[in-house]
Amino acid sequence: MKIISFLGIMLFSVSVLAARVEVDIVGITCGMCVEAITKGLKATDKAENISVVLEDKKATFTEVKNKKLTDSEIKAVIKKAGYEAVKIRRKQ
Ligand SMILES: [Cu+2]
Fold first, then answer.
1. In angstroms, what is the span from residue 55 Cα to ligand 1's centroid?
2. From edge to edge, which strands make up the β-sheet containing 47-53?
């Protein structure tokens, strides 16, 4: 019973710590863009649950546990893929 409570607290902590990150991106025009940005974020090994939506021109993801993806890292990844990150929001 103690172990179950402990696991519950651990899971709760993880879900609290995993920030949802939203990135507004300029230059997304098609599915290839979506693919390039998704691949770029995935390659960092710091982002999971990655979703890039063409219509919204927005990428959302959660940070991998204990791996912080800074705003400048995000901008660099998006730039490397050929686009520009104009706004980054974090939601706990
Ligand atoms: Cu495209």
1. 12
2. 47-53, 58-63, 20-26, 84-91
DSSP 3-state of 84: strand
Quote the ligand 1 centre to 52 CA distance (angstroms).
12
Does residue 58 have a pLDDT over 60?
yes
Measure the CA–CA gap between 67 and 3, rounded to whole angstroms: 26
Distance 38 CA to ligand 1 centre (A): 12
> Which architecture, in CATH terms, is 19-91?
2-Layer Sandwich (3.30)
Whether this prediction's pTM lies above 0.70 is answered by: yes
The closest alpha carbon to 43, from 81, 70, 72, belongs to: 81
Q: Could you state, in order of their start, the residue ranges of all structural domains in the chain?
A: 19-91
Is the Cβ–Cβ distance between 41 and 50 less than 8 Å?
yes
